[in-house]
Amino acid sequence: MNTSTPRVNPDTTGTRRRARSALPALAALAALSTVAAPAAVAAERPSATTSAYVPAPIRWGACEAIPPLPEPSPRAQCGTVEVPVDWSEPEGPKTVVHVARHRATDPARRIGVLMANPGGPGDSGVDDVLYADDPVSGYEPDLLQRFDMVGFDPRGVARSRGAECDESLLDAIPDRPRDAAEFRRLRTRNAKLARSCLERSGPLAAHMDGESVARDMDAIRAAVGERRISFLGHSYGTFLGERYARLFPERLRALALDSAMDPDRPGAERYLKDGSVTLDNTLKKLARWCARTTSCALNGKDLTAVTDELFARADAGTLREPGPQGPTRRKVDADRLSGFLTGHLSGWTPKDTARQLKALHTGRGEVRWLEGAADPVARLVLCRDFDLRIKDHAEYRAIRERVAKAAPHVRYNAQALDTVLGCQGWTVPPKPRPARAEGELPPVLVVNARYDVATPLPGARRMARSFPEASLHTEDTVGHWLYMRGGSNVPRQLIDTYLKGRTD
Fold first, then answer.
1. Looking at the 3D structure of the chain, how many domains does it have?
2. Were 72 and a residue from 76, 91, 291, 332 both cysteine, which residue would form a disulfide, CB within 3.0 to 4.6 Å?
3. What is the mean pLDDT of residues 71-85?
4. Cα 148 from Cα 223, distance rounded (Å)
5. Does residue 7 lie within any of the structural domains?
6. Is-contact 439 414, C-beta < 8 A?
7. 310, 283 contact by CB (below 8 A)
């Protein structure tokens, strides 16, 4: 597998400034070791909006950090909640969800529970709470005074009985299928990878979707003894918040969604197009910055025209990696160039990105190729929540051509294409969007960057429109996960004010 393009999930560009732990996959519960055949999970049972299942109260205890993270806050407490693997069978096999709580520091002014999820799929919500009072990456003291912060590691993730797949199969999966034969091989080998997840993780692997996690969230609510919760979701965490709102509207006091996912189960073309057009617009923003900034390495040149020329040379097979003395013999193809643009534009370091584009253009200098690794566990979530299936290579080629026409200066968003291709041939089928339960929702707050390569603004607009009453605040900036990032403090202040100001 070509790892030159960034193999990242929706949250890669939005991780906290403190280091997150790289948690090893844990073995699945022995009781869940039975292999679920792909055919067995194809037929979905209707989903009830309520369940008779009542979790036991959480027995809180001390929290332990996972190296290399430091010791957690002394106010943090940890525990577990047992939930059904398949919520349509509440008396069936169970799995364990790990939970953390940071008690309100001013009990007399306590509002209630603020549950948060940092997204991923795959990031640890437990870690989010263990360091809630961190002065750099934590929450504001006033928010910690008013709320019990509650976080959890979603089912199959981190401490919550991690799902496991045979990652040795990844290298055999075609990276960018060039013809019908490679597209068929992509589907076949993705299916083999999915079967390995089912074999190693048991039935849990077929139930890691957002609806199941939202039901886990309500079990956590019940286990901490709260009638209602407030929720703050970031990136994929916004998808969980939307699912919770659909299922349990009257159990929400407030809902704040930062860097919002598209809630409407977009198809492959829309998913890829939204991300690619956003990336193309971000390149144009870089070009405008360069035109007015004399320190830009390409000042005085049309940066988008330079990029167009780089793609033309890549198509012709004449683009080479730069070196200290001039071009090397290593070719750079168009896919690698799209991967370069995706990785560097999403992080928004304009001076450095322009310098590297000049190095590619002149052949002299240095370029950093952002490498990453595919995450099969993320596919267990995303390929279940979205329907990204493509019929065959002809349809795939047509989609790529239409997307490239819409985003001509970048061709495509490599991060979005990785997700789309990762779902081709996946044997655990997409899960229908649950029906909206009856009940009154609070007004919802959505915040998003105009140039968010990971969760594009069109998806955030659809997220806001999916609620009876919602406001969307747009930051005219490049970024993802606005609450915890540097730069403008406006999103953080808006979210904090909204969460504290909602009345019961």
1. 1
2. 76
3. 96
4. 14
5. no
6. no
7. no
DSSP assignment string, 414-483: HHHHHHHHHTTT-SSPPPPPPPPPSSPPPPEEEEEEEE-SSS-HHHHHHHHHTSSSEEEEEEEEE-S-TT
Residue 347 forms part of a structural domain: no
d(CA 382, CA 419): 8
Residue 104 CB contacts under 8 Å (≥ 6 apart), including other chains: 110, 111, 144, 145, 146, 147, 148
Reported as a pLDDT band with limits 50, 70 and 90, residue 412 is very high
Q: Which amino acid is at 29?
A: L
Q: How far apart are the first and last CA of the chain?
A: 53
**Tens-digit pLDDT profile for residues 360-407:** 999 999 999 987 677 888 999 999 999 999 999 999 999 999 999 999
Q: Give yes or no for a contact between 341 and 283, defined as CB atoms under 8 angstroms apart.
A: yes
What distance lies between CA 431 and its chain's CA centroid? Answer: 18
> What Å distances lie between residue 491 and 11, 449, 498, CA to CA?
17, 10, 10
Convert the pLDDT of each residue in 278-320 to its tens digit. 999 999 999 999 999 999 999 999 999 999 999 999 999 999 9
Q: Tell me, what CATH number does 142's domain have?
A: 3.40.50.1820
C-alpha dihedral sign at 381, 387, 389, 390: negative
Helix (H) or strand (E) run with residue 382 in it? helix 376-385
Query: 421: closest CA among 185, 214, 104?
Result: 185
Strands 147-153 and 444-451: unpaired
CA distance 335 to 2: 10
Output the pLDDT for position 290. 98
Whole-prediction pTM value?
0.89
Domain that holds residue 108: 12-164+208-264+440-501
Closest CA relative to residue 415, chosen from 219, 272, 263: 272
Measure the CA–CA gap between 200 and 29, rounded to whole angstroms: 10
Q: What is the tens place of the pLDDT at every residue in 196-214?
A: 999 999 999 999 999 999 9
Residue 354 lies in a domain: no
Q: Tell me the C-alpha distance between 188 and 181, whole Å.
A: 11
- Cis ω before 121 (30° cut-off from 0): yes
> Strand, helix or coil at 320?
strand
β 94-102/147-153 pair status: antiparallel
Q: By the 8 A CB rule, do 467 and 78 touch?
A: no
| Assigned token pair, 170 | 């990844």
Out of 36-40, 361-365, 400-404, 433-437, least confident range: 36-40
